[in-house]
Amino acid sequence: MTNTWWSGAVVYQVYPRSFFDSNSDGIGDLAGVQAKLPYLKSLGVDAIWLSPFYPSPMCDSGYDISNPRDVDPSLGTLNDFDSLIAHAHETSIRVIVDVVPNHVSREHKWFHEALASPPNNKERKRFHFRDGTSDGPPNNWISVFGGPAWTQVTEPDGTPGQWYLHLFDSGQPDVNWTNQEVIDDFDATLRFWLDRGVDGFRVDVALALAKDMSYANREQPQKLVDAIRLDLYDPENPEASREVREFLIDSPIFDRDEVHDYLRHWREILGSYQGDRFAVAEAWAYPTERAMEYARSLGQVFNFDFMVVPFNAETLHVTAKRIITNAIEFHASPTWVLSNHDNARVATRYGGGAEGLAKARAMALVCATLPGSMYIYQGDELGLGDGFVPPESRIDPIWQRSGQTNPGRDGCRVPIPWQSQEANFGFSTADKLWIPQDASWTPIAADLQESDPHSTLNLYRQMLTLRHDHPAWNDSMAATDLTLDGSLWFIERAHHVICVLNSGSETVAIDVEGRVLIASNPEAQEWEDLASQTHMVSLPANSAVIIEKNSQPNPQVEI
Ligand code: NOJ
Ligand code: CA
User: Fold this and answer.
1) How big, in percent rounded to 5, are the helix, strand and coil portions of the chain?
2) Atom of ligand 1 nearest to the CA of 63
3) From 58, 191, 351, 370, which residue has the greatest number of CB atoms within 10 Å?
4) For position 470, what pLDDT does the model report?
5) Are residues 200 and 229 located together in one domain of the fold?
6) What is the pTM of this model?
7) Which of 246, 143, 255, 264 has its CA nearest to residue 208?
């Protein structure tokens, strides 16, 4: 793999509706992202990834797109987008945008045309329209968000009619990728944003595009969709997890071989533009090699494993080793992800409170040290956990479609607390926010963290400055040695810096030939042991340090 800018980039995920509201309507917007560029610059990220900001009726917070080549009025205008990208580029921050090839919104003009036309007309063939059976829907497939994957329409003459496929909400009809019109239209979307200067794309559910066009019933249809649910993966129970994930093999809806034809075609489009444009696929495929195929076709794929494995040196070690080995084999760069807008934030997943935060801070140093690219979800740099969202304020379709049994993803999408003393923590001056904030967040608001040298915000800044300036990070795939010693995990990069993680419950003292550059816990200490003439570092429980060795960097790739 060539050393491209993105193979070692720190990418910050902006969820625009929850980032910063510039016009007091309670919803974050593109101008709000632009207003916060100085903050992002001071954080030290290389790129931002913008979750969808396109026109949408917001059945799934913007992942239901009615026009993929425009901006939703609640988020701004195309001019706002152009201004944001120009300002970002001026400060050397690249911009990647989300694209959603698997489905559109029920309000997309194609879907309106499909509803207005009789069955079997070409307008319906852009989607998966089928006649029902005596049991109702055309087959037994079900939606990732719960309930059937099919919804019946009313025909233009008012009679109950055909059914359309939607792997997610009924507001998100799946498009038919065997239709050339669909392929061409998506090309137009990619080119539209590439022409406006975007540096790349994050491809939503890239593994879902192709379907079994015989639409045959499957046994255990629930398991077909559970297979991509990260929250159902239990790394402590590999056998049960394998059973869950094995439903991705020969699936009628996910990870079908044909998908790669589409992805390779997009990569050609990316390659026809100047400046190393790239795409990262969301594709939680099984086994891992199948996921890596997406990196081979497209450039990069998310390695979501760190969002599911427990905070345990041994499991982390085995997981990282596998990811790096696979990446090398596939000439790809690993991607380290601790949180995103679909899953519990890392501090919450590790149990919340002081311990959850300590572990989240330690893992930030780990991810920053490992070879490859690091994705940071907005607010993780403040150490946020999920906010509590009362049932009456929940808007994620998962909440309703699961019959109010699964609270859904609103907790990790709560708007960012910027100012401890201002209304809505400075996120907005509106009376009401699209998702309410968590009143307990005052002490972790960004302004208070600015002045605290030990805050999570300043830890992230220090860490990203180091990663940016230190020669050990010059090569994104620099030699990485991983070693395990009980609850200690050593990640040595370029033979020059070592991140040591202590996942145990006791403080451990280690002797090192070097000095500590960053510690996730300010109580970590270093001293000279005069008797043995060694330099010692004590690592508190649930913490990590980055140490610079007394030797020069050597970036040869090896593991
Ligand atoms: C994955 C996105 O990350 C998620 O937020 C969305 O609900 C589904 N894809 C459907 O687009
Ligand atoms: Ca707004």
Assistant:
1) 35, 20, 45
2) 11
3) 370
4) 96
5) yes
6) 0.97
7) 255
Residue 143: domain span? 109-165
204 counts as catalytic: yes
Residues 6+ apart with CB under 8 A from 268: none
Q: Quick check: is 16 in a domain? A: yes
380's tokens: 């993780």
Run of H or E residues at 536? strand 534-539
Q: How far is the CA of 100 from the centre of ligand 1 (A)?
A: 8
**Residue 490 φ/ψ, nearest 5 degrees:** -110, 125
Residues whose CB falls within 8 Å of the CB of residue 442, separated by 6 or more in sequence, listed in order? 417, 420, 425, 448
422 contacts: CB under 8 Å, gap ≥ 6: none
pLDDT tens digits for 411-425? 999 999 999 999 999
Ligand closest to 32 (CA) is 2
Q: Is the pLDDT of residue 456 over 80?
A: yes
What does residue 547 show for φ and ψ, rounded to 5 degrees? -115, 140
CA 519 to ligand 1 center in whole angstroms: 35
Residues 146, 184: one domain? Answer: no
pLDDT tens digits along 441-453: 999 999 999 999 9
Domain boundary among 409, 443, 468: 468
Q: Which ligand is nearest to the CA of 283?
A: 1
Ligand 1 pocket, Cβ-based, cut-off 6 angstroms: 60, 63, 100, 168, 204-205, 282, 341-342
Count of CA atoms in the C-beta half-sphere (13 A) of 23: 11
Whether 245 and 155 map to the same domain: the answer is: no
Does 120 lie in the same domain as 96?
Answer: no
Encoded tokens for 332 = 């790809």
Identify the CA nearest to 455 among candidates 465, 440, 444. 444
Phi, psi of 68 (to 5 degrees): -75, 0
Confidence of residue 135 (pLDDT cuts 50, 70, 90): confident
The percentage of residues in the chain with a pLDDT greater than 90, rounded to a whole number, is: 93
Q: Which residues of 94-122 are buried (b: 16+ CB within 10 A; e: fewer)?
A: bbbbbbbbbbbbbbbebbeebbebeeeee
Number of independent structural domains in the chain: 3
Q: Can you tell me the distance from the alpha carbon of 422 to that of 467, in angstroms, rounded to the nearest whole number?
A: 33
Mean pLDDT of the chain: 96
